[in-house]
Structures are given as structure tokens and as C-alpha cells.
């Protein structure tokens, strides 16, 4: 298996009939941490949606965790998403279930049956995000930062080959953003590959890494000067 987890070649991304990003060329290797930046409306979300199958790639070539984005059928999307961990800005936790219930729901929906294995896996991911004692709580009983940690734990459940984090700190205050970022850095050091869309430039300065920018329908790499 190659260590390329994501590759786009001359990929043009559309939202409906309007072209959002033109001729994108990009490759991501296992273990990378890459930022995706750009102003609101510059195409970051469309870029992410194309990667997890919400928007179809119609022009150019694209592959992600061994799925061909161009030839992928509707029925393939759930299988693609099992190999991805997706973290959203607004957490998307189920409000009527405890944290354990939220995580259990995902595992059962993706085919896990053995109760002991489910319990063990949930404990492991909660431990990774330092939330082991919060499993019995409901989402509304947690702070925004804690909810986002749980969302990251949920993204880790099926040991994804790539984590797509779409503005994971967008709803958080600066201090909490740093805490969440530390969690992401940590799991990246443990070998998880992460693509993170963000408009929080303070984080880019604090945690420099390869950066792609969406601007005027193009995606290009920004060279960061090391401080």
C-alpha cells in the first residue's frame, strides 16, 4: 500500500453549476499535517466536501484512502467515510445521548458488534483526548472545547487513515482553540494524518505546518517562514 492518502490532479471543484476551485494539484502522505486556509467563500468547505463525498468530482482526477473520487458511486460513500475521521465546526453530537451513547452509536452503525470491544475502543479514544471521565455526561453538559474533544474522539473510533477537520476551532475561544489544537497535534504525532481547514491564523503561527491556501479559484501552497 502506498503512503499517499490523498491525491488530486487537475481537479476542478464545482458547487452546483458554479466552478469553485480550478485545476487543483495536491498530494498528502501518511503522517502529514496540512492546513487549508482562505477567506470565507474561497472554497475551503467545497474542497472538504469533495473529499468526503458530499460533492462529486467531475473534472480531473482524485483519490483518497484508495477510493477514486471520480468513479465513486453513492453506495461507496459510507465505506469511504469509515476510513476517514471527520471533525466539524459545530461538533454534530447527538443531544439525546450521553457521550458513551454517541460513540457507541457510531461503532454500531459501522458494524461493530462485540460489546467488550466497543467499550474498550471507546475508552481508548476518550483517553486519547483526555475525556475519560466524561462518558456519562450529555453534550449540553460539556463546554464547547470538551464537545470538540469528543468530536475528535468520535473521528478516531474507526482508526481512520485520514482525519478531515473542518474549522474545528471555529466556535471556540482562543484558549480552548489551543487546547483542541494540542489534541490534534498529539494524535498527529501518534501517526494520524490530518487535513485541517481553518481561518485561525494564530494557530498557524503557533503550530507551523504545510499550508494550502484557497484564493481566486486556485489552491496553492503557502511557504511559511519559520520564526
From TrEMBL:
Residues 6-225 form the ABC transporter domain. GO terms for cellular component: plasma membrane. Gene3D superfamilies: P-loop containing nucleotide triphosphate hydrolases. GO terms for molecular function: ATP binding; ATP hydrolysis activity; transmembrane transporter activity. One of its GO terms (biological process) is cell division. It holds the Pfam family ABC_tran. Keywords: ATP-binding, Cell cycle, Cell division, Nucleotide-binding. The keyword Cell membrane does not apply. It comes from the Bacteria. InterPro entries: AAA+_ATPase (IPR003593), ABC_transporter-like_ATP-bd (IPR003439), ABC_transporter-like_CS (IPR017871), ABC_transpr_LolD-like (IPR015854), P-loop_NTPase (IPR027417). Belongs to the ABC transporter superfamily. Part of the ABC transporter FtsEX involved in cellular division. Important for assembly or stability of the septal ring. This is Cell division ATP-binding protein FtsE. It comes from Winogradskyella arenosi.
Amino acid at each position: 500500500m502506498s503512503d499517499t492518502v490523498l491525491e488530486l490532479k487537475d481537479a476542478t471543484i464545482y458547487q452546483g453549476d458554479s466552478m469553485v476551485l480550478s485545476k487543483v494539484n495536491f498530494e498528502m502522505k501518511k503522517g502529514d499535517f496540512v492546513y487549508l486556509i482562505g477567506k470565507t467563500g474561497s472554497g475551503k468547505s467545497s474542497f472538504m466536501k469533495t473529499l468526503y463525498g458530499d460533492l462529486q468530482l467531475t473534472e480531473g482526477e482524485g483519490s483518497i484512502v484508495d477510493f477514486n473520487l471520480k468513479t465513486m458511486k453513492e453506495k461507496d460513500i459510507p465505506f469511504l467515510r469509515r476510513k476517514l475521521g471527520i471533525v466539524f465546526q459545530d461538533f454534530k453530537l447527538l443531544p439525546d445521548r450521553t457521550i458513551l451513547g454517541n460513540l457507541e452509536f457510531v461503532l454500531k452503525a459501522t458494524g461493530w458488534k462485540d460489546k467488550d470491544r466497543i467499550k474498550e475502543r471507546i475508552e481508548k479514544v476518550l483517553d486519547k483526548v483526555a475525556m475519560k471521565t466524561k462518558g456519562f455526561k450529555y453534550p449540553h453538559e460539556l463546554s464547547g472545547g470538551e464537545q470538540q474533544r469528543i468530536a475528535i474522539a468520535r473521528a478516531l473510533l474507526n482508526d481512520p487513515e485520514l482525519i478531515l477537520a473542518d474549522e474545528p476551532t471555529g466556535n471556540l475561544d482562543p484558549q480552548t482553540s489551543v487546547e483542541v489544537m494540542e489534541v490534534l497535534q498529539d494524535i498527529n504525532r501518534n501517526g494520524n494524518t490530518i487535513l485541517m481547514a481553518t481561518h485561525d491564523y494564530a494557530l498557524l503561527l503557533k503550530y507551523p505546518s504545510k499550508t494550502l491556501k484557497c484564493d481566486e479559484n486556485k489552491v496553492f501552497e503557502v511557504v511559511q517562514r519559520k520564526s
